[in-house]
Amino acid sequence: MTYAERSVEAFLSDVASPRVAPSAGATTALTGALAASLCEMVCIHTSERETSERLADARSELHDRRERLVSLADADGTAVDEVQTAFEADSDDDHEQAALRTATDIPVQIAEAARDVADCAVVAATDGTQNARTDAVVGVTLARAAVDSAAAIVRDNLALLDDDAFVTETRRRIERAETDVAAAVTSVTGN
Questions:
Q1: Helix or strand or coil: residue 57?
Q2: What percent of the chain has pLDDT over 90?
Q3: Fold for domain 22-189?
């Protein structure tokens, strides 16, 4: 059963359990999906009143990002379980490093998808109905929280990795997502 198929209460109980997954990455991905949902709602409410190609494009992108983030929540749960299994089984270093690379790359993908949500939030806040602007503000704020949270996960994991090229490229990607989301938040909130 995927996280999307569980009730909110079941997911929260799974997080607050002795199990390893779902943990921070899955929670971060679903936070990004919530951000996408809020901004998508702004696009929907506005398009009911007027037609805007930018809003239609943003709505489509937000829908895609929402689905992607939900999928990444499941992927993160699997990756965390694989890391746990590798460490508990005293696997060889190559197996542990491979599991850690996967468990690091998924939060990077979460950050990049959440950054894309924040970019769409700018359109929702700018072109959307002013009655729903607060939803776009909350959406971009949640997207920033998802990027910041994913970055924290990534940085912790990078400290455990031996692959310098992977570490350098991953650090570049996460820093780019942080820079981009900060610009989107400033555009929407003025802060």
A1: helix
A2: 79
A3: Four Helix Bundle (Hemerythrin (Met), subunit A) (1.20.120)
